[in-house]
Design goal:
By secondary structure, the protein is mainly α. Helices cover about 75% and strands about 0% of the residues. The longest helix is centred in the first third of the chain and has 32 residues.
Length: about 250
Amino acid sequence: MVQAGLGADYAQQIITTEIANFLSRTEGASVTPVNLVVRIAFNPNVETAWFTSVMGIINSITMLAIILAGAAVVRERERGTMDHLLVMPLTPFEIAMSKIWANGLVIVIAVGLSLRFVVHGLLGIPIAGSIPLFLFGAAVYLFFATAIGIFLGTVARSMPQLGLLYLLVYLPLAMLSGSNTPLESMPPWLVTMMQVSPTVHFVSFAQAILYRGAGIAVVWPQFVIVALIGGLFLGLALLRFRRVAAAPA
């Protein structure tokens, strides 16, 4: 991506130079050469760290949510403690939600501390928007990511299997979310297809809040979309967990 950006700058400089040379050779009336001045609004010095640091945290949210939630289920089944939970006065829904809430809370706290003390404090990267608003959006998104982890945990029989399934799910979500490659550089049909992924909308409102200082009045449509799709995936994961917990292998 850095090489592509440098290449675009070089191409723009070449085109600008050729236009100026052409206009300077124009016969007849004097013509003022056209000067193209590009101003970058939210990252004037084009610092790569401003982008990669925040996007790294966003990708880590998806990674940790899937792995921690999935591992919580797989470990229970590997150690045989799932039977202990089922004989307690708890429903499969309560067992699954306890794992989602516990892992989600840890991730939200870690993300908040990372943004405040590492990204903003140690690296000195400015954060334009509200960190609490971003954390609220991250909490909404975690219902989707942890639901994926719970679902994969019911499919996998061991931690190595969970790791392989995680790679098949995480890589497309991360690479096509807009955090690594801009959506504008993707084929239109792929962009349309990826709109069903909450990760795309999560990256969109995260960039709007942290980079451009957007408020809830701007990003609430993305919040609603993430909540609706995440709720659908959560319901499917809980149904799968209920069936597996009722008859553990």
